[in-house]
Amino acid sequence: MTIVAASSPLISIIIPAYNAERFIDETLQSIQAQTYTNWEAIVVDDHSSDRTADLVRAYASRDSRIRFHLAPRHGGRPSISRNIGITLAQGEYITFMDSDDVYYPNGLQVLLEPLLKNLDLNASMAFPYYCDSELKPLHPSPHLVEREDGNFELAPDYQLSWEAICRSEVTLSVCCLMLRRSTLITLGPMDETLLMGEDFNYVINLLRMGWERLLVLPESTFKYRQYRGSVTKKPEHLISAVSCHVKSTNWLFSLPDLPETLKPLKMRYLYKRLSIIASCLTKLKRPDLAMTVIINSFHYAPLSGSVNWVAFMGKEAIRLILPEALQDFCSMLLKTNKVDYYKAYKR
Questions:
Q1: Which domains does the chain have, with CATH numbers?
Q2: The whole model's pTM is what?
Q3: What's the pLDDT at 337?
């Protein structure tokens, strides 16, 4: 059966895709299963070398709400594909999705309803539910508490504030957002110079338009896959991400509206980002690259007198150098907990 789109879709879903044939079927099927049906899905293919284009074109031939667009050239950055999608979007409300994620059936409706009821809102935001590569549930967002009835509430310690952001206590992603078109126009395009982290900067700029104009919903609207084969978790991608985190950190802590009292947290913030990269590389069996990240981190603040370096990068050095039996003891000496950031990853 061929499905014909409404003449004017209310929601545009922008999906950057690159070599996504493994999961794109489930992604598009989850969109087609939405309780809210007046949408368009724009898949921007970054010149995949697999069957991504053929699969999406087949869906588009049967459902005119699904649109396929081939990028002019391989850009290698989701921000480029997302910006292309923004220029093509026809909806009054825009949201973003990765090509390996899966919506819950009411995902679009949950995000849309508050925006229809309250015209003062710029955007609504929900959270993912983390799953493995086969969509086996792992855990909800750390910002949500799952109740016995299956619904959620915000974690007691959750707060969306400058301090929480500078202490890396909140996660921000465009895949959790739905924005008004007028808001998107004001924000402008995403930063295409960043290989990763451009969506974080985008949400920060959204907050700067008015913190009270972003509604945070205690809802989980989609399933987020965590797995080693993910493009964002490939070793070469993670190494390239180091410079992106440095640039993003410098940008964040130079914002004029950031309280001066929080600017001393800059190195703590950066080292936490770098330590997560080092930890992930260790889990990907690339201790050589993890050690490269640790050694290069000296460039930002030498070891002498730098408690932040010891607390974050020193912990990762311990994980690489010492056997498991000694790691807990040495972590205790550093007054930090041993963290296994990606213990949930599945092949």
A1: 11-225 (3.90.550.10), 231-333 (no CATH)
A2: 0.85
A3: 46
